[in-house]
Write a structure and sequence with these properties.
Number of strands: 3
Order of helices and strands: HEHEE
Structural class: alpha+beta
Strand content: 15-25%
Strand order of the largest sheet: 1-3-2
Oligomer: single chain
Helix content: 25-40%
Number of helices: 2
Distance between the termini: 19 Å
Length: 89
């Protein structure tokens, strides 16, 4: 399980997050995983780009759909969409 991916501003744009995510997926796939699911808010462009690129680079399908409406969160947290990537081979 990966809860969040964060990269220090001095190292952004260098592929650190992508390399980390690829390594996690490689390990999970070697143990039989075929799908990755994550939730992302619509305003999180960096995460959307990261996970979209993962799907593209792995030749996997990416589906996006609503999951957690903003009415489920206290305060100003916005809705989260489910991103489902796979199957991995």
């Amino acid at each position: 399980m990966v809860w969040q991916v964060g990269v220090d501003s001095a190292h952004r744009g260098q592929g650190v997050a992508s390399s980390l995510l690829q390594a996690v997926v490689d390990r999970a796939v070697s143990q039989g995983a075929r799908w990755l699911e994550t939730t992302i808010t619509a305003d999180n462009r960096a995460s959307i780009a990261l996970f979209s690129a993962l799907a593209r680079n792995r030749g996997a399908r990416l589906s996006v759909g609503g999951l957690f409406g903003d009415d489920l969160f206290a305060g100003s947290h916005i809705a989260e969409d489910l991103y489902r990537i796979g199957p991995f081979v």
